Amino acid sequence: RSQELEKEIQSGEKKNFDHVVKCNIGDCHATGQKPITFLRQVIALCSYPALFDDPQFPEDVKARARHILSGCAGKSVGSYSISTGVEPIRHDIAKYIETRDTIPSNPNNIFLSNGAS
């Protein structure tokens, strides 16, 4: 329906609004939110480690990518992880739960899966 409304507005049809914001598919960029650069940079470094030599990447990004890769076999996100998920990430999640919820959290009780395991 949003595309129909946009076409109606473009053709000059009067509405109680002058534009349509598409929020139905979880696309925050469609609503004008800027991409989160930190996450994209970490993903780029994890996916293509040769970028670690690029001075355009901040040190905190490099540190996070190294941390993630330290739990990947061969230091590659293309490798299979253990069935429970990448260990450093499970530890980070446990620490986050403890901080947020103020209850003990054990990374050995946290399982990360893409749904195929």
Molecular structure report:
The structure is a single chain. 39% of the residues lie in helices and 0% in strands. It has 117 residues and is mainly alpha-helical. Helix 2 packs across helix 3. The radius of gyration is 21 Å and the shape is elongated.
Question: What is the compact description of this entry?
Answer:
It is built from 4 helices and no strands. The chain has 117 residues and is an all-alpha fold.
Mean pLDDT: 90
Helix content: 25-40%
Let me know the number of strands.
0
Order of helices and strands: HHHH
End-to-end distance: 38 Å
Radius of gyration over C-alpha positions, nearest whole angstrom: 21 Å
Strand content: under 5%
DSSP helical segment count: 4
Which keywords apply here?
single chain, 117 residues, mainly alpha, 4 helices, 39% helix, 0% strand
List the helices and strands and how they pair.
Elements lengths: L1 H9 L26 H11 L11 H11 L17 H15 L16
